[in-house]
Amino acid sequence: MPEALGTAVSAGPAVIECWLVEDAGRGQLTKKPAALLLRQGAESLLPRPDLDPELYLKVHAVLTVLTHTPTPRIRLGEDALLDLSFAYMPPTPKATTCLAPGPPPFGLEWRRQHQGKGHLLLAATPGLNAQMPAAQEGAVAFAAWDDEEPLGPWTGNGTFWLPAVRPFQEGTYLAIVHLPYLQGQITLELAVQKPPTVSLTPAPLVWAAPGEAPPELLCLVSHFYPSDSLKVEWELRGGPEGSFQKAEGQRWLSALRHHSDGSVSLSAHLQPPPVTTRQHGARYACRVHHPSLPALGRSAEVTLQVAGLSGPSLEDGVGLFLSAFLILGLVKALGWAGECEPHLDWDP
């Protein structure tokens, strides 16, 4: 008996490339390339020279369940909207006339599978007075047929809304649509993320004398999720001949700090080596990579100032202090001389 095994979607949304596996006898199997062509109505099939025309099979889809968001990525604390739509085509016109006019009643279930445990989040039977369990975690589903035409096909909506998602709510979501004697389902992979904020201290300047090491740099990576796949890099930008290189020095990471919303924070430390005058104006940067960030990540930087090469040096400061002291003494001396000068009184 032939068996179709889907492997990839290539040639547009209406063609699914697959393999056709047949029993060749004596325990052997043969595999031939095949394609599942999705079309509506009585459209003619375009010939495929790479496929055997003798193996063309017609398959009528009665119930179709699909989503436009198979792998949603939701920011921590924001609402999740999982798209779901379905369509029902009666197999024959006679089957339609045997039923009441309009779309048939249906049931909808949303379940979550996470860390080996399954949870029923919501069950609904629109149009039926069945007793259903209460929805969990504030979940809401927009379960309804889109139209009430007497004859099919019909389309419906089962979109799922979950408010203010938390880390424990990520995982595999299973949507099941029940029709009389029919069932269709689809899975979605929900990932929860939160990008980190990055800050670097001391900022915006760090001072060091030639031959001395700058103070320890502290990079705060705050309130991110998930906690794994985080990478911190230290860079030295500028410096001699405007080079861009990996920063040298001793580095280490702190333990994770957990927050009430499920996010975490940590601090990265760098103790740079002694600096030279050629590194004046260079910038130390802390770059963070995380699945929630763009490919280049996010960074913060501080500028290195070598003492004596910018601004007043220590000798300049001492000279200014002595000059100010001498000027102040001269002003006081002139004031004292003015007070001691004799005044002559003239009688009219």
Describe the structure.
The protein has two helices and 23 strands. The chain is mostly beta strands and 348 residues long. It folds into three domains: 1-52, no CATH class; 60-193, Immunoglobulin-like, CATH 2.60.40.10; 197-306, Immunoglobulins (Immunoglobulin-like, Sandwich). Strands 4, 6, 7, 10 and 11 form a five-stranded antiparallel beta sheet that branches. A five-stranded mixed beta sheet has the order 5-13-12-8-9, with no helix packed on it. Strands 14, 16, 19, 20 and 21 form a five-stranded antiparallel beta sheet that branches.
Question: What's the SSE blueprint?
Answer:
Layout: E1 3-9, E2 15-25, E3 28-37, E4 63-66, E5 73-75, E6 80-82, E7 85-88, H1 93-97, E8 107-114, E9 117-124, E10 140-145, E11 154-162, E12 171-179, E13 182-193, E14 197-201, E15 205-208, E16 217-224, E17 231-237, E18 244-246, E19 250-253, E20 257-258, E21 264-271, E22 283-289, E23 298-306, H2 314-340
Parallel strand pairs: 5-13, 15-23
Antiparallel strand pairs: 1-2, 2-3, 4-7, 6-11, 7-11, 8-9, 8-12, 10-11, 12-13, 14-16, 16-21, 17-18, 17-22, 19-21, 20-21, 22-23
Membrane topology: Single-pass type I membrane protein
Function: Involved in the association of MHC class I with transporter associated with antigen processing (TAP) and in the assembly of MHC class I with peptide (peptide loading).
Pfam family, one: C1-set
